[in-house]
Amino acid sequence: MTNKIFSSAAAAVADIPDGASLAVGGFGLVGIPAVLIDALLEQGATDLETVSNNCGTDGFGLGKLLEARRITRTTASYVGANKEFARQYLGGELEVELTPQGTLAERMRAGGAGIPAFYTPAGVGTMVADGGLPLRYDGDGGVALASEPKEVREFDGIPYVLERSIVTDFALVHAHRADTAGNLQFYGTARNFNPDVAMAGRITIVQAEEIVPAGGIDPADVHLPGIFVHRLVEVGRQETGVEIEKLSANGEERS
User: Fold this and answer.
1) Which residues of 72-94 are buried (b: 16+ CB within 10 A; e: fewer)?
2) Which of 15, 81, 145, 253 could form a disulfide with 136 if both were Cys (CB 3.0 to 4.6 A apart)?
């Protein structure tokens, strides 16, 4: 069996080149492969194209790469909670492909499963299917580049839009536990996009809080088989330092 364990996050991301496409796990502040992202920030790769539910928050996750002007294009379903993202997008500095959240997850899962495209009802009758979504602004309030119309086909009288699957050069993933064969276990809601992201990468790099010997995870608890994982680095228990994502109107905390 090929050794998948790397000595550090820096070693695991060392060969990611300029212009690479990256699928990145996480949802909000949960399940973010922050150690790998920080290592990539230090490594210096630029002109990156990212695929993730969101592009991080100001000062955390992919938000750090964004602030350093290292991302030129992103595919995402949610773009809130990041002022720098909004500034770059509206200023014409960042190309953004918006896609429904479930569609994004399935595009990555399908890519990993070898399915080139699929039909879905999500987005039918909107600019997602009809085209015209602003991909890039010109910096003066106009649209420099807009999305093209997609194929729509009826099945049993119901319209569906054709969506292309996603395969990226690399994938960055956070897991609760991995074994040395690359089998992964996720904890709670950190499972979110991480399994789909792991499937989408041609080279999938995983930061695991704990790495155990092969067979150390009960087969019933394996959430993603090791066939999709190429590199592992142990990072210990992760604390974001920004545990509260939103405060409700009455001041109560909501994670």
Assistant:
1) bbbbbbebebbebbeebbeebbb
2) 145
